[in-house]
Amino acid sequence: MRLLSKAVQCAVSQREWSRRHFWGWLNAVFNKVDYERIKAVGPDRAAAEWLLRCGAKVRFQGFDRWHHDYNGLPTGPLGRYKIQAIDATESCIMYRGFDHLDGLKHVEEIKFNKCIYIEDTCLERLSSIENLQESVYMMEVVSCGNVTDKGIVTLHKLRNLEYLFLSDLPGNQRQTDDTEQHIAPRLYTSTQNTVSLKRRQHT
């Protein structure tokens, strides 16, 4: 009986490992960058396809509606639709797909909420993109377990950032002190594991 129980447990564990391996492989495929596609349709369209393929949402400049259906992306002249906001809540975007962000010039808002593949290298990569350094003014990083203070402090490169909300980041034990020190001049408030920053108003 004990041997049978062990065999069942082993089979279940193997099945779980295979399932995780399959989904990890599929998510990596979704994040693969097709540079020819970017050239063909432009950076905004290609980035929108990547984000929606991975379960994120986008909002285009001049529109109130969020797009989440890959097949429902608007058609029209290339370059007409510019991504203004990205909501990656519970999506599978990962570092290997971040090259899609290089050509985006109008992104103002980014939300990373419960993104299991978002880690420090993702924030570092995002913060190094010159276009985003100039355009992004609002950002949220919530419940991303692989993000630490090392990634958060790189966000100081986003020169136009006016609002930063951090919450439930277990890998960022020193986030209040580090954020205050490196992302200035901002006002911040902290409650438990939450940090909310706003650019100091100049008079």
Automatic annotation (TrEMBL):
Domain of life of the native organism: Eukaryota
SUPFAM superfamilies documented for this protein: RNI-like
InterPro entries from the UniProt entry: LRR_dom_sf
Protein's name according to its UniProt entry: Distal membrane arm assembly component 2 like
Source organism per UniProt: Lates calcarifer (Barramundi)
